[in-house]
Amino acid sequence: MIDLDGNATNSGSNPVVNNSLDNSGNNALDCPNINPSINPSINPSINPDITYDLVLRQGRAIGVAEFAGQLVDVGIAGGKIVAIAPQLANAGAMEIPVEGQIISPPFVESHIHLDSALTSGEPRWNESGTLFEGIEIWGERKQSLTLEDIKDRAIAALKLQASQGVLFVRSHADVSEPQLLALQGLLEVQAAVKDWITLQLVAFPQDGIYSKPANRELIEEALRLGADVVGGIPHYELTRENGVQSVQRIFALAEQYDKLIDIHCDEIDDDQSRFLEVMVAQAIRTGMGSRVSASHTTAFGSYNNAYAFKLMGFLQRTNINFIANPLINITLQGRTDTYPKRRGVTRVKELWQQGQNVSLGNDCIQDPWYNFGTGSMLDVALMAVHVCQMTGRKEVEACYDMITVNGAKTLSIADYGLGVGKPANLIVLDAIDRFTAIQKRSVAKYVISQGKLISQTTPAQAHFQLS
Ligand SMILES: [Zn+2]
């Protein structure tokens, strides 16, 4: 499907990706070069004196209020956006005609597990389709983990995502095994890819912090080794009390080590799983809300309304971030229901309506929990549109924001977005606005990271043979 060698031959209906990231050996970690296949095509009215490294001509810039509804040129030099205007007079060393399509800030992957990515069927398939069989299978698969295995799969998954416009990723790393191989492998990947993708790592105790005595020390060691975020899984701790204790411990560790927090919280259909309230209470008391993310919170979709409305009120007293993973939630949840069968997703629409920051993640790419997934954020947004019933025009646009600007807020990314002086991280999509990007599941025609073109995709074309 994806040709990472840059030899563009489209045998099927899939788009062609020309990716300047080498997919073999150590070169895969080099900073990519600009693909020379784009030739400048300069309008005669443009001064041929080269001022910019790269100019994107006549696109619709997403999130630039000053030029809303207008076509603009974007000038890039020294890795930064240096000019945005209806017409830039000077030329760029490279010119990309955008032709009225959108220039967007890159996609943000708020929640993924790169350590388990691309392992589906190993050592066996998840036949029940449940979260808990997935955890068992991963427990078996991780017995054979090696650093190389983790790094190769993680880099392959990041390239899949980067070719589709993702330039910021938060990945969980399982820190429940004694050698911390997943974390060590992903820390090496984080350093290796930093010139083209920003990777944030969560110390995630998949088996619980209090399920084994060693796990308490392992999560702390992971923070000392350099994990950016403290994770947790209170609903999978052995008792309710251990779950509460784990949330309190996570907040204490985050304060002690100056880290962000991202907890797998209430990822179950049990309407009595109520660790979100513990997170909210800790966030209100500590004032750490903006540094805290609650991932999944699928039980929120099963709470009775009297309780849910009370909790929504408490949420207004803090500003924690929510991360929903609609592809996975709709797949894993509701498995013990007969009919009616729950959707198993958190209250995305209501949280958005209340002004809470909600972002979306893939969670899985072909792993023990989910055999599908290509890393596309537009697939995630499309599923959110369906499963959260956010089909109104403004609601669809909100789902686009959940894979871009809201994700940037969740990850605390500084200098995100399109603006003069900001790092030149941007994508050109085969779409005229946010709505059509999701409607068409547009390809990322050009992906520019830190001022360099790292990937180019030609939209698929069908050739009919009808007489
Ligand atoms: Zn997860």
Order of helices and strands: EEEEEEEHHEHEHEHEHEHEHHEHHHEHEE
- Share of helical residues: 25-40%
Instruction: List the ions, cofactors and other small molecules found in this model.
Output: zinc ion
Average pLDDT, rounded to a whole number, is 92
- Give the overall shape, derived from the CA principal axes: globular
Number of strands: 17
Give the tally of structural domains: 2
Unreliable parts: 1-12, 22-37
If you consult CATH, what is the topology of the largest domain? TIM Barrel
CATH architecture heading of the largest domain: Alpha-Beta Barrel
| Distinct helical segment count | 13
Major beta-sheet overview: 9 strands, mixed
Structural class: alpha/beta
CATH superfamily annotation of the largest domain: Metal-dependent hydrolases
Radius of gyration: 22 Å
Strand content: 15-25%
Q: Termini, distance in Å?
A: 29 Å
Task: Kindly provide the name of the CATH class of the largest domain.
Answer: Alpha Beta
